[in-house]
Amino acid sequence: MEIxxxxxxxxxxxxxxxxLSDLAKELDISPGYLSQIENGVKKNPNLExxxxxxxxxxxxxxxxxxxxxxxxxxLVKIPSLLKLTLAKDRYNKVLEDxxxxxxxxxxxERILNAKYLINNNELYxxxxxxxxxxxxxxxxxxxNIEAYISGKNENR
Length: 156
Description:
- By secondary structure, this protein is mainly alpha-helical.
- It has two domains: 5-82, 434 Repressor (Amino-terminal Domain) (Orthogonal Bundle), CATH 1.10.260; 95-154, no CATH class.
- The chain has nine helices and no strands.
- The two termini are 35 Å apart.
């Protein structure tokens, strides 16, 4: 999934609850021009205007241009609205498998039902924390198993 400059600008603007018209007025550009940038119609926007947008919305230039190579730094700087969009796209792909979806729904139902079995809110939070810890541990274990199997197959 390719992230475009305009999508990042729009996501950051919306995250800050700024209307397109208000931002355009503040930057002394037309709302139509800003809309063209956000929608990717304006492929090569004026650099001075782009820098004004970046400064106003506090967007990291190297992240915006895709210069950074370390994914973890890149994800930290992506506006949270865009992070949510990326996660949704990934999760939807995982849940396309009907068997996975069925198991996911069963797990979610059990976790939510536990709230009615564990009435104490603090204990329920501890319960959720333990589920997260166990899930992380299990993921590491299965990644190690996968690496072992892959290594074994490569040696054949």
